[in-house]
Amino acid sequence: MKLHLLNKTKFDTTSFSVSINEYNHFLKLWHYHPELELVVIIKSTGTSFIGDSIEKFEENDIVLIGKNLPHKWLNDDEYFLKNSELIAKALAVHFDKEFLGDIFNRAPEMKPIGDLIERASRGIRFHEVDNRLKSKIINFNENGAFDRTIKFIEILYELANHNNYKLLSSIGFRSPSDNSIDNNLDKMYNYIFDNFRSNLSSKDVADYINMNHSSFSRFFNRVQRKTFTKYLNEIRVGFACKLLLEAKKDITTICYESGYNNISNFNRHFKEIKNMSPTEFMKLHKNNKKGKKSISVG
């Protein structure tokens, strides 16, 4: 999964850019950019890769992605069928961290937005956002340039004070940069993402980035603040959760497709990480889905 730098700078006449993207499927590109990105999924389902997080996404999801945080939106398989009539549609707002200067850090009343931007370095998925705010985000671009800026600050402020959210990427995940250490990290993360479903070992990764195995173990613990084995299990369980939410395969199949070689090992690690079994996880989300009402935004 090669990482690409994309140029999202379109700030000639405004402090940020707003676009409604509507395609047969989203761009299958693992990428990053120096601008933050606020995304509302209007139509489509699939898997989001944000930093080292792998989760299912669906309509009405709202996600804030931080500066230089690698990400990819991968639609479900049916979106790529030859005769598919499915549509992937999303609103994306790209903005610079300091599009209003240093006001978010210097003005006390703006501190919640400054804190939000810092949290976004790990990626944020907002849960249970009401229809009013969703509609406000999707429609705020209809205003003139000045009013649009004011509306966007209001949106950021409301999101900053929204308490039901999840930080996506792990605290140790680093964003791309030019120095050799972070280039090594990029190679490491990309290799793990490409191979976590195989019989991957820490020695495999160490060999790939040309490091001594014991040096790699110390390096990994320092960067991630956890062992390679724990990190790998978190990635595998995250991928398993995505497959469980899709409800297209049985638990045994998901176990092997997530990189485990026996069901008892899979169940044990799943419960350690999620505090519930895969079966309990499926039942919980099935019950939650039944209780949800359809949400209309536009």
Can I get a quick summary?
The chain has helices at residues 103-106, 111-119, 131-139, 145-160, 180-195, 202-208, 213-224, 228-246, 251-257, 263-274, 278-291, and strands spanning 4-5, 16-23, 31-32, 36-43, 46-50, 53-57, 62-65, 71-75, 88-95, 99-102, 124-126, 165-167. With 298 residues, it is of the alpha+beta class.
Explain what this protein looks like in three dimensions.
α2 (111-119) crosses α4. Mean pLDDT is 85; it is low at 291-298. The two termini are 34 Å apart. This protein has helices spanning 103-106, 111-119, 131-139, 145-160, 180-195, 202-208, 213-224, 228-246, 251-257, 263-274, 278-291, and strands spanning 4-5, 16-23, 31-32, 36-43, 46-50, 53-57, 62-65, 71-75, 88-95, 99-102, 124-126, 165-167. It has 298 residues and is an alpha+beta fold. Strands 2-9-4-7-11-12 form a six-stranded antiparallel beta sheet, with helices on one face. It has a three-stranded antiparallel beta sheet with strand order 6-5-8, covered by helices on one side. It has eleven helices and twelve strands. β5 (46-50) and β6 (53-57) form a beta hairpin.
Reported for the largest beta sheet, the result is:
6 strands, antiparallel
Radius of gyration: 20 Å
Overall mean confidence score, pLDDT: 85
Poorly predicted residue ranges: 291-298
N→C terminal distance: 34 Å
Helix content range: 40-55%
Q: What string gives the helices and strands in order?
A: EEEEEEEEEEHHEHHEHHHHHHH
Tell me the number of strands: 12
Structural class: alpha+beta
What would the principal axes of the Cα set say about the shape?
Answer: globular
Estimate what percentage of residues fall within beta strands: 15-25%
Tally of alpha and pi helices: 11
Strand order of the largest sheet: 2-9-4-7-11-12
